[in-house]
Specification:
Length: 359
């Protein structure tokens, strides 16, 4: 197949980890006979330095003309000045909004070779394989908000949680479709005992699932109970779908199951148009430029890109197997080495590449 892939390395270790993922994508093209072209764009601090904007129009055009986008990370102390006109993170919010990326997809999978990296007990973590769908463009983050001064001088502020059936339906559908390729179970998380918006969420979820995914098992769990179940019995969950704020909190909590941020990829998807793939970590200014960042999250994000945007499942699995193989042989970057011997970013990339070419 032919595809154009936009590469937006961004700032800090984003540059280092995207370079390794690009090598893997090039190897996928060669091994499986695809024609991938890569186009680079600026986003974040480097874009502000070059153009004054965190997401220049040129980058947006490159993204729109591509089938998929691989992003590193943005930000760093250099751009943290509170009086600055724009911040690197503005580029992230704008690209999500402009491309209509309403679903954030995060796999939380505990590698059998790294269970000791988790702060949780091995018997709880081993075998965990959850796919989160967090709604990304609605809820409290985007509802009407405000602040006012009361007559006594104190202040009142508010945010509103708003969802329409349309917004709920489209993310529930993505979750249902994903469950079909997995263990066929979707857990919807809400607060329907208290919130009206959750009652609409629950009704809409039930209607869509019964009508369109009768073969998929469903359940409802309240957000407070879910916070507990996620660390007490995480193996009970397959696909989890929830609104923006609940998903933000649960996915960070879930990232502790596998143990290290340097391992976790994510995707942001829309109805049509390109999907955006990135590691969940940031630009890690404390280690940027040292060549020690873990590139595996970004390499696994590239595998998600192949799966979700290019529909190349075999190729995606081949990358994931190569990563597993490298971990099974005991190779570690510093963040997961537990003080033991560690390899560099580039060496980790090479090891995955070698394993990929060998299978
Ligand atoms: P961070 O994720 O960049 O780093 C947190 C800690 O994890 C650091 O000690 C870092 O060295 C380590 N770490 C992260 N990724 C790693 C990797 N691949 N390999 C080894 N170690 C890794 O979060 P932090 O420090 O809160 O933010 C740094 C900058 O990144 C800020 O400017 C922040 O705004 C930005 N950021 C950007 C994100 C994005 O582009 N999506 C997401 C989160 C933060
Ligand atoms: Mg968060």
């Amino acid at each position: 197949m032919r595809a154009q892939i936009a590469l937006l390395p961004g700032d800090g270790i984003g540059v280092e980890v995207v370079a390794e993922a690009e090598k893997l994508l090039q190897a996928v093209a060669k091994k499986f006979g695809h024609e991938f072209s890569f186009v680079r764009g600026l986003i974040g601090g480097c874009a502000i330095d070059a153009t004054g904007e965190a997401l220049p129009d040129e980058t947006l055009s490159i993204c729109r003309a591509s089938q998929a986008i691989l992003l590193g990370a943005v930000g760093g102390p250099k751009w943290d000045n509170p009086s600055a006109k724009t911040r690197p993170e503005a580029g992230l919010l704008k690209i999500r909004k402009e491309l209509g990326l309403f679903a954030n997809v995060r796999p939380i999978k505990a590698s059998p070779y790294l269970v000791q990296a988790s702060p949780l007990k091995t018997e709880i973590v081993a075998g965990v394989d959850i796919l989160f769908f967090r709604e990304l463009t609605g809820g409290l983050y985007f509802g009407e908000s405000g602040r006012k001064t009361n007559p006594d001088g104190s202040e009142t502020a508010f945010n509103t949680m708003i969802y329409s059936t349309h917004e709920i339906e489209r993310i529930v559908r993505l979750a249902g479709q994903a469950a079909r390729g997995r263990r066929k179970k979707v857990t919807s998380v809400d607060k329907a005992n208290v919130l009206e918006v959750s009652r609409l969420w629950r009704q809409t979820f039930d209607r869509v699932m019964q009508a369109e995914f009768p073969d998929v098992q469903t359940e409802h769990v309240l957000i407070d109970a879910m916070a507990m179940h996620l660390i007490s019995k995480p193996k009970n969950f397959d696909v989890v779908v929830t609104e923006n704020l609940f998903g933000d909190i649960l996915t960070d909590e879930g990232s502790m199951l596998p143990g290290s941020m340097g391992l976790l990829p994510s995707a942001s998807l829309g109805a049509d148009g390109p999907g955006l793939y990135e590691p969940i970590h940031g630009s890690a200014p404390d280690i940027a430029g040292k060549g020690i960042a873990n590139p595996l999250a970004t390499i696994l994000a590239a595998a998600m890109l192949l799966r979700h945007s290019l529909h190349l499942e075999t190729e995606a699995v081949a990358i994931e197997k190569a990563v597993d193989h490298v971990l099974s042989r005991g190779h570690r970057t510093a963040d997961i080495a537990g003080g033991g011997p560690a390899v560099s970013t580039v060496r980790m990339g090479e090891l995955v590449l070698e394993a990929f070419l060998a299978v």
